[in-house]
Amino acid sequence: xxxxxxxxKHGKVRFTSHLDVARIWERALRRAELxxxxxxxxxxxxxxxxxxxxxxxxxxxxEYLDVELDPERQLEADLESLxxxxxxxxxxxxxxxxxxxxxxxxxxxQQAVTSCxxxxxxxxxxxxxxxxxxxxxxxxxxxxxxxxxxxxEVTDDLRPLVLALTVDQPLEDGVRLIAELGTQPRSLRVxxxxxxxQPPLVELRVVRLHQxxxxxxxxxxxxxxxxxxxxEPVGVS
Amino acid sequence: MWPRLEPLLPxxxxxxxxxxxxxxxxxxxxxxxxxxxxxTYPDTYEIGLPNQGLQILYEILNERSDAAAERSxxxxxxxxxxxxxxxxxxxxxxxxxxxxxxxILAFNLSAELTYTNLVNCxxxxxxxxxxxxxxxxxxxxxxxxxxxxxxxxIADFVDFVVLGDxxxxxxxxxxxxxEWKRAGKNSGTREGLxxxxxxxxxxxxxxMYEVDYDGPALAEVRPRYADVPAQVEKRTVADLAEWPxxxxxxxxxxxxxxxxxxxxxxxxxxxxxxxxxxxxxxxxVRERPAEQVSSMIQQGLRxxxxxxxxxxxxxxxxxxxxxxxxxxTVSDTGVGQVSVALPSLRVDAFTVGIAAQVQRARRTGLTFxxxxxxxxxxxxxxxxxxxxxxxxxxxxxxxxxxxxxxxxFLTGLPTETDEDTLGIAELGRRCxxxxxxxxxxxxxxxxxxxFVPKPFTPFQWFGQNTEPELRRKIELLKNDLRGTKGVQLKxxxxxxxxxEGITSRGDRRLGAVIEYVWRHxxxxxxxxxxxxxxxxxxxxxxxxxxxxxxxxxxxxxDEVLPWDHLSAGLHKDFLWQDWRDALEELxxxxxxxxxxxxxxxxxxxxIEHVVASATPPAGGSQGTGKSASLTGxxxxxxxxxxxxxxxxx
Lengths: 237, 649
Known about the structure:
Shape of chain A: elongated
CATH architecture of the largest domain in chain A: 2-Layer Sandwich
Number of helices of chain A: 5
CATH class of the largest domain in chain A: Alpha Beta
Radius of gyration of chain B: 24 Å
Number of domains of chain A: 2
Oligomer: heterodimer
Number of strands of chain B: 19
């Protein structure tokens, strides 16, 4: 059996890294006494599969991980109460918000997720300047950037990965943007987007609001809704 | 302070070092009737967080209604630069409270090379670095930990020093400070407070003592007042069973060294390795009952979610309850696959058997510490392991599936000849040969450190090898092992051994040297990217002090040592006799199962070794399988110890 767990990450704990979060989950699952399956071999590891990495310092409403359970052992907890039980084993700021059973054949989160919606607060600029930067980016046919990768200069067009971008509202200490950024064939990072704008904007606070799985005909699904028809999604949010 | 710190964190490496939020973290209440302690480890969070001493005191203090304890660690240089730019002081990671708001800044000192970080943390706290310049409103600066058995080099910077186990004494210090705080910390009363503290057994207040010099030599250290003790005795917790701490070990959110559950199985060690300060100053042996260890493991694993537990002590295979604890732990099915880490393994087949029992899953590498390359040398240092003991252990390890061995050695030991040094390479080669019988490409890592003599050991009189001499010995090994397949040589920087040597046996004049190094940017001296031996040599020269005098010369029997007014319980004449025996190549059996040598550690405190088993562990009292007669005559000193008032119940 495979479980997909959704969780949020807010506050001080946002300064932990992706690797830290993986370790936190390994311990939390053991504390919650979930019958997690282990890999075979010399150095058995719990069979966990994490979604797209969240940059250290960013918050998120929707993070995911898939957990393979040991077929030989019973899942004692019922799915309804599992998010609460897991949250009790997580540090302050990390909360499990839902658990579903997914098909064991379903593609991994990293393969399946196609885009993410971001709330991006940037340092103060005139609202017009922000609007103009956004309009210009969306109007552009290409947003070409060069970056260094494995010691080589690589040229990339970011435009296809900018699926949506709007100026949301002015804040007391800055301006809020909402963006949907593609993750295939690679993830467009918030920092890359901001520095590619004209003028470049400076990141203040970033929250991942949603992750999406879209199909060939452009329909968007929540990663929790790709469960087998029989399983009802459960959650506390 | 969090709102001011938060915007800085995206700009620094590893920001999770500064957020706290660990499972086990406490949010204590502060107030005028509560004595607040900031327990600080003066190195990075990754190094400091696992420190058990600090975690034990954190819990014990927070259990008291009149105390509050939070924690702090040295910020890395990137954050420090931003903090200084923004005038942000050192802070606690628990509630991000400014260090200056605490009553006591208490530092754990486990390594001499952190001394400049101690000064840096005091400065970052916004507190004058010199004890003499502090006023009543400033926090008290206290230190504890192994280095404080010679606190003279840092005497200028600290208000008080705790010798020995801290469990009981932190409460007594809290009592004194609470009364002073209740009286309103009135101006001009700090001196009186320090004098009161100096009367607490185990507490040394450097400013209550006058030091006289005779040229480069120390003439006398004497108390300034009649009610200040002439000699400060260390504190010893008699029964570890009464202190089952930490009860809620901190589980960090980010990676740290020793990222596993740790349960202390005993304190003290009487193997009597003459180079080992920890073994000398923590005597006598006090074991934790096996049932308590087992239940601490079971509860700890369930609470933390760790899948690994380390049984800590100075020589865990000597724990008389080891087999019961391991069988309890591996048969505890409720927690899944658990591996048990055994630091400081003994070199024998029994130990390998234990290791095999607990490391079923991840059988990667095994570490042994023969410490010296020849039997002669090992008799000098009293590490009584024969070559055959080592080969037997190594054979047993390879035959049970291990592929990698790590062997720890010291070089620069008293009476060491090039033959002894080269013996290290020879042992490495022989171990690889043994491994070839079982595997195609066995690997042996030979790790060599330069020996730095420490206070309260029989080698405290020994002149440390010079830096060029240590370097020559490493070169000797490098040349000898060149082209040897399977043996990898690792060595400790001999320049760092020199800097450690400067601080380990120095007197108060070293304070100016530490300050000089700190003022010239010399923090994080334990980190090779920041370490600078030139800074230390420059600092010595600038203060007119000779490296030769402080590090390289042999000390004499009649000279006053900078730590003579402190006591780790050991008779100085026992140590001197042990030093003479070392030079005669006489070994000394473990006193747990042989007659008492009257080292002083037990008798002075009216306590005895607390061991659960009356018989020595398998393989003899040194774990060697050798009879005592092989190690030569056993010198027993029969001088009765003068009774010392230690004021303990």
